[in-house]
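Late entry, evening session. Most of the bench is empty. Finally got around to the prediction I had been postponing all week. Sequence below, unchanged from the version circulated by S.P.
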Amino acid sequence: MGMVFGKITVETPKYEVVQSSADYEIRKYPPAVAAEVTYDPSQFKGNKDGGFSLLANYIGALGNPQNAKPEKIAMTAPVITKSPGNESEKIPMTAPVVTKGDNNNKVTMQFLLPETYKTAEEAPKPLDERVVIKEEGERKYGVVKFGGVATDKVVEEKVENLKKSLERDGYKVIGQFLLARYNPPWTLPAFRTNEVMLPVE
């Protein structure tokens, strides 16, 4: 019932607030370990989750973990998406997911693993060779938080405003935005927590 009212009960990434203003926060995220799948979205017609089920199978969210130990890996939040053309991709449940587009219109979907995994070697080896374990370095983002439903129109407006605020204050944006959603889709809109994140130097 708590999830309907926006209660976040899973691990969320730790970060350091470097600067806080009325418009946004500058956050520094420490290194993390991720599981990822790269796929062509056109191969998943009628199924919006793309590589989600491959990653959910790896951590054991949909049954027995599909990794060499086998070891069940805890879910985390937020869901972070990055798709070709900066369009947000619908993900069916809250999970540690990052989705990124590349030049071939392929999408990389990424689950951030719990912080107990400090290196890629510590994470259980995936049984499916499409799932790759990698280490993410330290990252810095300009972040703005907002509630309600993260529609494309709302997200586009938040990204534009954040970009203007960052550039006004002398920050250089160095990549596409990420949309972070902390709640599953059945959470009432008034209780949802979302963030738009822009990578900065």
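Two things to note before I forget:
The first strand starts at residue 16 and ends at 20.
The chain has one domain: 16-199.
Will write this up properly tomorrow.
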